[in-house]
Specification:
fumarase; 5-stranded mixed barrel; alpha/beta; 182 residues
Length: 182
């Protein structure tokens, strides 16, 4: 398995060189958004309102971090099940996201949109929220603070581990094993 280091923001050149099954370590900015944040984004757009942040070229991490203990930057920050956000994929891609991080399978529409928009879906490690939180170097709420743990956070991460689950070519790690001379 190839290991790749990625610095944000993602570019088309970076995404073109990511392949299903690649282990990657992300350093840079991520935005968080779970179910309620996705719903709020859709409601705002439907009402013709401007979002309080720009999603162009961003990576969205499907996480609702637990509250930080004293002296910590963030609480446990493990991925949530991505399929719950599938029906928001068209909106998010139209807003310009380049990647998503979560866990589990995605629907066929999301996979097709990943190809169309030259994006990528990363899978992270469920049950490892405490470990993943140690890779988060800063966290601040940038929108929807009334949603508590589902508010939109801006995170800065260092060597955040993910696997390319769906690449821009439509290869899906959940559909078949990838063998490249391993």
């Amino acid at each position: 398995m190839e290991r790749k280091t990625i610095n944000t923001p993602l570019t088309d050149d970076i995404i073109e060189n990511l392949h299903c099954g690649d282990l990657c370590f992300i350093t840079g900015k991520l935005l968080t958004a779970r179910d309620k944040a996705h719903e709020r984004i859709a409601q705002m757009l439907s009402a013709g309102e401007k979002l309080p942040f720009d999603l162009k070229n961003e990576i969205i991490y499907y996480v609702g971090p637990t509250p930080a203990k004293p002296g910590e930057i963030i609480g446990a920050a493990g991925p949530t099940t991505s399929s719950r956000m599938d029906h928001f994929s068209p909106i998010m891609f139209e807003l310009g996201i380049k990647a998503m991080i979560g866990k589990g399978r995605r629907d066929n529409l999301t996979k097709e949109l990943t190809k169309k928009y030259r994006a990528v879906y990363f899978s992270s490690f469920g049950g490892a929220g405490a470990y993943l939180s140690k890779r988060i170097k800063s966290s601040k709420i940038i929108a929807f603070d009334d949603l508590a743990s589902e508010a939109v956070h801006e995170l800065f991460v260092e060597n955040f581990p993910v696997v390319v689950a769906i690449d821009m070519y439509g290869e899906d790690i959940y559909e078949h094993a990838v063998h490249r001379g391993e």
